[in-house]
Cell division protein FtsA (Lactiplantibacillus modestisalitolerans), 453 residues
Amino acid sequence: MDNSGIYVGLDIGTTSIKVIVAERVKGQMNVIGVGSERSNGLSRGVIVDIDKAATAIQSAVRQAEEKASIEIKKVIAGVPANLVKIERCRGMIAVADESKEINDEDVQNVAAAALVQSLPPEREILDVIPDEFVVDGFDGIKDPRGMVGVRLEMHGTLFTGPKTIIHNTRKALEKAGLQIEQMIIAPLALSSLVLNDGEQDFGSIIIDLGGGQTTAAVIHDHQLKYTYVDQEGGQYITKDISVVLNTSIENAEKLKRDYGYADAQQAADDEAFPVDVVGQSTPTQISEQYLAEIIEARLDQIFDKVKQHLDEIRALELPGGIVLTGGVAAIPGITDLASERFGTRVRVFIPNQMGLRHPSFDAALAVIKYQAALSEVALLVKSALTGESRASVALDFANASSGQSANQRPRAEMPTQTGQPAQSRPDETEQPADPNHKGAVERIKGFFNHFFD
């Protein structure tokens, strides 16, 4: 499947909103437009003022539209992992066709059956991923369409999140005049961008160091197994600098970006720079090392909390190590500091696309790559969440194969359209996870046996 066409990724972060427009042609993803706007109406990764957030999103989208020379109507939005729960789901149906040949409608029906579950009123289904299909007892099937059988089962992974977070995201995008093509959990998307196939298979940890919060995600067997969110991020580092040096937040942010080091041992004690101090008429000279000590103290606190939760599930034993993403990951020396604190291999992922060579763009780029890589059967399963018709899914794939897209025509030819928020099914069930990680080393098996027992 080609999946060519225009993709628009949206990352709604606490400190900035990123929009990336990319064109996929013959398997090659080319970025053709980028928008970045300072966030408003967000706190710790969550939209708390819908109108302010919608205005900021509109501004970032306009920037991307001008650079890409298109009008953006549909976006792939990343959502934070706050309070996300990972559960197993299972559905079973009788094949409807008289010939007993499994088709698209059967896949949608078995996915809908897997989603018939009881949820607390404050939670909503975010995503569902098919792990395997079973046809008349034969398991391990990735795409059952075209096969003949009487009974079709689907075993999958279900992600649920707080209804407030999901609703506010949808409402802000609706007010911004945008349709949601897909909502993707940020760590799930990041795994497809920052990890190679071996790292996703044998197990790795992604730590997203954002402005408002830090998210740790454990990936194993190509699946998201665990998430932990610490409500501290780059904003806390900036506030620490502001308080300790008695300078404004704006000055503190500039100092962090221009002179900051994550590891005080790498900073020079004899290199100084002026700092405007509140209540003083002349700037005060501050050394690089002193600034680094302030930054390192906060990062130590964040890393200690994350490590404590990762140690509880023995995730640091995974061979893939840690990959750092997010804007804070750009601070010099952070790799060495994290490696020392976590006791494992650490690297920072930086996109190689021109104009995006900064880890703050990882999340917006990740949702594009994740969506473009989805198989047709995976999209059919996801359509059960929204009740999207089989014909509509088929049309989307026809458009993708021919290179057409709702975001592709020139702006002058395209009417403005306000999208409707996707509706999700109200019911879902919870089932315990059953790890079966073939070929993994014994210590990795022990980790997941300990985690899922």
